[in-house]
Design a protein that fits this description.
Blueprint lengths: L4 H16 L6 E4 L5 H13 L4 E5 L4 H8 L12 H5 L9
Length: 95
């Protein structure tokens, strides 16, 4: 999910759908550094709904560079998102 107004709306709709079908859910916030206040609100909302946040991936041009070079972001020289991606799937300290 992206920390934006539309991302928050999509998250709420998805949470309703998942709840209806009694499925497990977790969230990974993409571009988490673009809108810090929206990111904070999304974390608070997830916490209020007991939805675990499994990752927060900061904005990085590395994704664009990786696509242009036909590689994954993990194959590029050092980027600021590698650690976040390697920790994906582990609950954030905020949960």
């Amino acid at each position: 999910m992206k920390p934006s107004v539309s991302g928050m709306h999509d998250l709420a709709c998805l949470a309703d759908l998942v709840t209806h079908f009694q499925l497990p859910m977790a969230v990974c916030i993409n571009n988490s550094t673009l809108h810090p206040e929206n990111n904070r609100q999304m974390l608070i909302w997830c916490q209020s709904k007991t939805i675990p946040v499994f990752g927060q991936i900061p904005y990085s041009d590395a994704f664009r560079s990786a696509v242009q070079s036909g590689k994954t972001v993990l194959e590029l020289p050092e980027t600021n998102v590698k650690d976040e991606l390697k920790n994906y799937g582990k609950p954030s300290p905020t949960n």
